[in-house]
Amino acid sequence: MFQYQVPKRFTDLNAGGHVDHGVLIDYLQEARTEFLLSAPGPVPAMLDSGVLVTGHWVEYLAPIAYRTPTVDAEVWVDQVGGARFSISYRLSDDGVPVALARTFCVPYDLEVGELRRLAADERALLTQAVAEPVSVQPLGKVKPTELAQARPMPLRVRWADLDSYRHVNNVKFFDYFGQARLELIAGAGPLRPGDPWVVARQDLDYRLPIDFRREPYQVRTGVARVGTSSCEFVADIVDPADRRCFATARSVLVSVDEAGRPEPITEPVRKLLTARQASD
Hints:
4-hydroxybenzoyl-CoA_TE, 2 domains, Thiol Ester Dehydrase, Chain A, alpha+beta
C-alpha cells in the first residue's frame, strides 16, 4: 500500500479554521498523482498521455486542523477494468481518521481527444496492486426530477481553474458546487461566522470536460431531503445555451453549533430548503 504525506498550506483553511472540504479533494489528487508517478513501468507516463477522473465518492469523518504540517494518505488501486480503474484512500490527521474516498479514472488519448482502453502492460501493473475498496457506499445518481425546483447560479470559469490538460481541473468542480450551495442557504439570511454547516458526504459524477470561456456556465442546486439537522443537496453544471450537462453532484450537509455539534436547522433555512425540494 502506497503512503504519502500531503503538505498542508495555511490558505487551505476555511472561515471555521479547518481545511475546506474542497481542499481535501486536492489532497486526494496530490496523493493519487504521487502514487501513479511512483509506480513502475508505463504507469507514470499515463499522466502525460491523459487520465481523466469520472467520479468521486467522499466521506468526511472529522475536521482537519493545522496542528501538523501534513495529512497522512494511504492509497491503493481497488478495481481494474478494460478501460477504467478506481483508487481508494484513507486520510488521517495527527493519527485521527479524517476521510475515506474512492476515485474513478479512465485513460485518455490527449492527441486524438478520445477515451482509450488500458494497454496490456498498464493493466497488468495496476492489477498487481489491487486490494479491497474502502468502505464508502454511493449516494446514488442525481435524477432530473430532483432538480425541478433547483436554484440557478451563473458560473464564470477562472483561467486559474484549468489544469495541464487545458480543461477545468476535477477539484474545482467541488468549489463550484460548494459556492452554489452556500448561495442557496444564504438566501434565508446572512451566514454567521465560523462553520454553520459541515459536509459529511459528497459524490460527484463528471460527464464532460469544462473548457475556459468568457460566457458563464450555470450551476443548478436543489434539495432532495431535509432532516432535523442534515440536508441532502443535488446539483448539476449545465450550459444554459444548449442544456448540456457537465457534472452532477449529491452531497449531505449537517448544521452544527459553534462547538461542531449537530443542531436543528433553523426555521428560516428549513423553509427555504423545503421550497427547493422537488415534489415526489
